[in-house]
Amino acid sequence: MNPPKPISPFRLSSLLRLQNDPKLALQLFQNPNPDPKPFRYTHLSYDLIITKLGRSRMFHEMEQILSQLRRETRFSPKEIIFCNVISFYGRARLPDRAIQTFESIPEFRCQRTVKSLNSLLNALLKCKEFEKFDGILSGIDKFATPDVCTYNVLINACCSSGSLGDAWNVFDEMLRKHVCPNVVTFGTLISGLCGDSRLDEAFRLKEDMVKVFNVKPNAFVYASLMKGLCRVNELSLAFELKKEMVANKLRLDSGIYSTLIAALFKVGRKDEVFVVLEEMRENGCKPDTVTYNAMISGFCNEKDFEAAYGVLEEMVAKGCKPDVISYNVIISGLCKEGKWREANDLFEDMPRRGCTPDVGSYRILFDGLCEGMQFNEAAFILDEMVFKGYAPKSASKTKFVEALCQEGNLELLCKVLNSLVKGNVIDGDAWSLAVSKVCKKEKLSNGSELVDIFLKDTETVPIR
């Protein structure tokens, strides 16, 4: 029997591309052949394995491959590999690792350009590490010249941090440096202005982008303007913009229609929602989760929970799976109306419906039960929440403990404090409140006696 043919560098790249399991891909990369001779890896094989590991957040293994790449002498890696690594760290909210990767690029005999700079700035933007921008930008003239993408990220960062004045300063600098703004530049500025309710300025900028800069608005620009108009109940103008989009042959997506649907509910024009839905279908735009959630929210605000449940059923019938937001909106609405049993029933039914409750689900139900003085049910939800690694908001914990102290239910208070302690989610305010209230009520001399009474199953009371 002939021994299997050794895998060539080209064949390895093909196999890596076909392998969907990153762990198996890593094994293949590390042991392509039984032959102990050093394997001649290609740039493509490095690129493929680093991308697979990065997308799977196997960062330790990815760093090992990068260390191996650093020792490679037959070629110099291309900058795109490091741009991808920086982006992976940005998505994982690991800004320091993204910066370290950017700074280490020269160690790989690779020249940094504006591409890796933009990747880093975008990663820091995702992480909301705006204060690190200045340090990165200082001295960039030595290896890169900012382009339109650079300025777009900076403008986005300014708008995201609420500094519209700084965003305009960056825009002015663009023009001084003769960098032509594009539709992303204007879209970001217009979105920021609309978010700040400066609609007149936003519409003037829309006119300028066409007349002065010869840049046509895209769907994002229109969506931002329509959201701004709907926020101030200017629905007539919002529908005029929709007509303008059609005239400009721009595709109306579900986000546009969802914005209009939510606004119609808000101003009490529910009957027109079904007209919008019909138009969606005629234009070949299928309602998605966002669309249905806008309807669920609208019906819940009108306290029409039967209709909200009907939307859930329609979603399933139309092959659109409800997400956790769909259920959280209804649970929140039921709690606000004092329908705690119905809210709890829906909460418990979520897994059967194929949707796992998240921390928001637990917090909504817990707060609703506390507000309705359903303390036993709230304690049960709290215990389950802590068991799953979640925690109520700090103010909610303190409010619950205070309510139990005022009610004088020592047994339930003991259970609640035990849950908080076991989950290591008790804070100083809640514990101090329990100590002061109960020591006074029970005429205890100090908090240690309270510990003995309340926390027999725990050795210490961690406070954070």
Automatic annotation (TrEMBL):
<feature type="repeat" description="PPR">
    <location>
        <begin position="358"/>
        <end position="392"/>
    </location>
</feature>
<feature type="repeat" description="PPR">
    <location>
        <begin position="182"/>
        <end position="217"/>
    </location>
</feature>
<dbReference type="InterPro" id="IPR051240">
    <property type="entry name" value="Mito_RNA-Proc/Resp"/>
</dbReference>
<dbReference type="Pfam" id="PF13041">
    <property type="entry name" value="PPR_2"/>
</dbReference>
<feature type="repeat" description="PPR">
    <location>
        <begin position="218"/>
        <end position="252"/>
    </location>
</feature>
<feature type="repeat" description="PPR">
    <location>
        <begin position="323"/>
        <end position="357"/>
    </location>
</feature>
<feature type="repeat" description="PPR">
    <location>
        <begin position="253"/>
        <end position="287"/>
    </location>
</feature>
<comment type="similarity">
    <text>Belongs to the PPR family. P subfamily.</text>
</comment>
<feature type="repeat" description="PPR">
    <location>
        <begin position="288"/>
        <end position="322"/>
    </location>
</feature>
<feature type="repeat" description="PPR">
    <location>
        <begin position="147"/>
        <end position="181"/>
    </location>
</feature>
<protein>
    <recommendedName>
        <fullName>Pentatricopeptide repeat-containing protein</fullName>
    </recommendedName>
</protein>
<keyword id="KW-0677">Repeat</keyword>
<dbReference type="Pfam" id="PF12854">
    <property type="entry name" value="PPR_1"/>
</dbReference>
<dbReference type="InterPro" id="IPR011990">
    <property type="entry name" value="TPR-like_helical_dom_sf"/>
</dbReference>
<dbReference type="InterPro" id="IPR002885">
    <property type="entry name" value="PPR_rpt"/>
</dbReference>
